[in-house]
Every structure is written in structure tokens, then in C-alpha cells.
Design brief:
Length: about 475
């Protein structure tokens, strides 16, 4: 057998006396999944080749041949005509082999001053940088969708909960803005991780650097990296940037999972705060009355798989001595699946948000239950001069009385409230209304409709 690289079609075959067994070939090959890196692999190779020519390591004629070859390869891949071969192990060797078929010796020279170790690290960083940008953009879309909904419901009153018990009234807009805050921090985390993702490993070669007079800064500029990795051993071996990305992804999914849990809960007929558009729900094959919130449930479920990928990558790294080890080939599938899950989840969440129908009457009814304005009565008494702890005690008595009588605090009536404390004036009933309660919390971070509208304005300015 003769091939481009020698007698066994493999880059290192001259040293070996028998072919790799089929079992080993299948076990070690990554081309089935890393062909997804083809585009970034070619971008990296083109920048490397241009640098080799600029530094005189490669001739201009060879560079032109390499560029021509890659144009053809890109067309073949786009058209689905490219023949991926398991014999050639991974995306890098498949593409290099085809390049050599197309342009001859120039293709064989491309790998000068480079190793697959710095090549794959470069590919994965380029790919992840682009994916990070897409995720940050999708996060902005989702935040905008939430802001639109929050704006429509800046004054819609719902119960705020602690311990899943009605605590104090809040506005639905305020509740939604809590998630906008979480998502804005998620976007910051991705942007921060991007700074460390966006460093160029190329030039590290296998592990120690190269004896050729390369220009790493030039390659970095051409590929849009912010700088070069400063240590060759570190450059080819660490995948902490992928771990960081997956950690940010896990926190994001955790937030989306919490939100999903609320949507499921709000949709339950017992709660009935919202309805989700039919396109986000499924029926039951046996119970004709059912409309199940499958999408938020699945988002909650997919959170677990992203956490799993984070654990996989952490574990992948923990036992590896310097420098490159084949273990690192296992970095790709968790990363790819994390990105796929995030992209799909963010898209569907933004669209789902536009299909949320709010049942303001049900929210209001629930907020009116559970003595949600009890704190307002205590605050009222404090303003009249009572120390807060005493006010708290007094309102607890009022709640007990109202509860026994089966009425809310306002339902006790002015006379009974005044009997509890002479400080109670006839202005007290205003403070016990739901509108009075939310409107009074009128400071940055508070639930008052005015504050909700101001916060929406700030978020919109940040996202524009
Ligand atoms: N497919 C390999 C990976 O994903 C490329 C690097 C292989 N290098 C090596 N020395 N075996 O990591």
C-alpha cells in the first residue's frame, strides 16, 4: 500500500511495522465528530501558511497552491462531496491528505513548524470563540423578549413567595426582571471567559515550540485572537478555557431551569398564572384534557446534561501530566453538545417568552390571599412611632384575628384595627391595598411599577 504519507497512508507510518487494528482505529479516531471543526481548521491552516510565506519558510508559489487547494476543499465540504476517512483518524489529517492530493508537495509543507497538538488547540479555541459570540447574542435576544413582557406587566400584581408561601405582593414585571439580571450576569461570564479562550496556541508545535523563525503575533492578528499563549507546554495541554465556558453554561442552564420550574408551576391549573401557547405544549396520549408544558420541563432536564459535560471536562483534565495527552481528544463532544444545547435552549426560550399569556386576575387573586400586606401594616405602625419589633408582634395578632374571622387584614375594618393600637389612623386601609404595597417600594431594586419601568430602560440601553 502506498499513500501520501508513506506505505500505510498514515502520517507516522514509516516507524510502524504493522497496521493499526480495526478496533483500535475505530477507538482512537475522532473524525466522526471533529469534522465539525473543518472550517476553523482551514482558517487556522491558511493563517499558518500565510505566516510561513511571510517569514520566508514557505515559498509564495507553495502558498498560492495551498490557498487554491483549500478553496476546492471548502467547496467539496460544503457540497457534501468531501470523503471523510476513518483511516485518517481526525479532521486535521483528512484535510491535509486531501490538500496534498490536490496540490502535491505544497500540501506536505503546510505542517512545517506545526503539530496537531497546537493545531487542534487552535481549532477548538476558534470554534468556541465563535460559539461564545453566538451565545452572547442569543442571550441578548432572550433578555429583550423578557423586557417586552416585563414592560407590559410593569404594574401587574402577583404574589411574591418565600418558602413557596405568599409573602408580599410584587409586580410581574419585577419578577421577570430578576431573570434579566441573572441572564445579564451570564452574558458577562461568557464575555469574561471569551478573553481567555481567545489566545493563540499555534507556534507551540508539539509541546516545546519550533526551531523555525515563526511570527506568532501575525497569525494571532489574522485569526482575530487577542494575543498568543505564553507557554508552549500550557498552550497545547490545558483546556481550562473549555471548562470555564462549560461552567458558565452550567450556571446559565441553572437559571433557565429555575425559570422553567416557575413556568411549569404557573401553568398548573391549580395555580393558573399563565398559559403557554399551544405550540409549546403537548397533549397526552391517554388523558384528553391535558396540556403539558413539555418545553420548560425539557429545559429543566437538559440542565443535567450540561452539568454532566462540566464534570466530564474537569475529570478529563485532572490527572493529565504536561503536556499534550490523547485524553484531550475527549474535550470535543461535551463542548459541542454544550453549545448545541445552549443555542437551541436560548432560541426556544426567547420564542416561548413571546407566547406567554398572563392571567392577571389569577395572579391578583393569589396576591390578595395570605395576608401579603402584613409587612405594610407593620411599616405603617413604625412610621407612627412604634419600634419595629413591637409592630411585628401587633400585626401578628391582627393576622391571627383576621385568620380566625376568615377575612383579610383590610376586612377586619378600621374599628378592630384601631382597637389593636391607638396609632392606627383612618389612612391605614390605603397601605393595606396591593397597589399601595407595591407602589411604596419605590427605590432602586424595589418592585414599584415606576422602578420596573426605569430598570427596563437601563437594561434596554445596556443591550443596545
Ligand atoms: N485528534 C486529536 C485531538 O483531538 C488531535 C491531536 C492529536 N495529537 C496527537 N499527538 N495524538 O486531540
Amino acid at each position: 500500500m502506498t499513500g501520501q504519507f508513506g506505505n500505510k497512508d498514515k502520517a507516522w507510518s514509516a516507524r510502524f511495522s504493522e497496521p493499526v487494528s480495526d478496533l483500535v482505529k475505530r477507538y482512537t479516531a475522532s473524525v466522526d465528530f471533529d469534522r465539525r471543526l473543518a472550517d476553523v481548521d482551514i482558517r487556522g491552516s491558511l493563517a499558518h501558511a500565510a505566516m510561513l510565506a511571510a517569514t520566508g519558510i514557505l515559498s509564495e508559489t507553495d502558498l498560492a497552491s495551498i490557498q487554491r487547494g483549500f478553496t476546492t476543499i471548502r467547496e467539496e465540504i460544503a457540497a457534501g462531496r468531501f470523503e471523510w476517512s476513518l483511516d485518517l483518524e481526525d479532521v486535521h489529517l483528512n484535510i491535509e491528505k486531501r490538500l496534498t492530493e490536490l496540490v502535491g508537495d505544497a500540501g506536505k509543507r503546510l505542517h512545517t513548524a506545526r503539530s496537531r497538538n497546537d493545531q487542534v488547540a487552535t481549532d477548538i479555541r476558534l470554534w468556541l470563540r465563535d460559539a461564545t459570540d453566538e451565545i452572547i447574542a442569543l442571550l441578548a435576544d432572550l433578555q429583550r423578549a423578557l423586557l417586552n413582557l416585563a414592560e407590559r406587566h410593569a404594574g401587574t400584581i402577583m404574589p411574591g413567595f418565600t418558602h413557596l408561601q405568599v409573602a408580599q405582593p410584587v409586580t410581574f414585571g419585577h419578577h421577570l426582571l430578576a431573570y434579566v439580571e441573572m441572564l445579564s450576569r451570564d452574558a458577562e461570564r461568557f464575555a469574561d471567559a471569551r478573553r481567555r479562550i481567545n489566545r493563540l496556541p499555534l507556534g507551540a508545535a508539539a509541546l516545546a515550540g519550533t526551531s523555525f523563525p515563526i511570527d506568532r503575533e501575525r497569525v494571532a492578528r489574522e485569526l482575530g485572537f487577542d494575543g498568543v499563549c505564553q507557554n508552549s507546554l500550557d498552550a497545547v495541554s490545558d483546556r481550562d478555557f473549555a471548562i470555564e465556558f462549560t461552567a458558565a453554561a452550567s450556571v446559565l442552564m441553572m437559571h433557565l431551569s429555575r425559570f422553567s420550574e416557575e413556568l411549569v408551576n404557573w401553568m398548573s391549573p391549580r395555580v393558573g398564572f399563565i398559559d403557554l401557547s399551544d405550540r409549546y405544549c403537548t397533549g397526552s396520549s391517554i388523558m384528553p384534557q391535558k396540556k403539558n408544558p413539555d418545553v420548560p420541563e425539557l429545559i429543566r432536564g437538559k440542565t443535567g446534561r450540561v452539568y454532566g459535560h462540566l464534570m466530564a471536562l474537569l475529570t478529563l483534565m485532572k490527572g493529565q501530566p504536561l503536556a499534550y495527552n490523547k485524553d484531550n481528544q475527549e474535550d470535543k463532544e461535551p463542548l459541542f453538545d454544550t453549545v448545541d444545547t445552549l443555542v437551541a435552549t436560548l432560541r426556544i426560550f426567547a420564542d416561548m417568552t413571546t407566547g406567554i399569556q398572563v392571567r392577571a386576575d389569577r395572579m391578583r387573586q393569589a396576591a390578595a390571599e395570605g395576608f401579603s400586606t402584613a409587612t405594610d401594616l407593620a411599616d405603617y405602625l413604625v412610621r407612627k412611632g412604634l419600634p419595629f419589633r413591637d409592630a411585628h408582634e401587633l400585626v401578628a395578632l391582627a393576622v391571627r384575628e383576621a385568620s380566625d374571622a376568615g377575612v383579610d387584614l383590610a376586612g377586619l375594618g378600621l374599628a378592630r384595627l384601631q382597637a389593636l393600637s391607638p396609632l392606627v389612623g383612618d389612612d391605614v386601609l390605603n397601605t393595606l391595598t396591593l397597589e399601595g404595597s407595591v407602589g411604596a417600594r419605590n427605590h432602586i431594586g424595589g418592585t414599584a411599577p415606576e422602578q420596573v419601568r426605569a430598570a427596563i430602560g437601563r437594561h434596554r440601553a445596556r443591550l443596545s
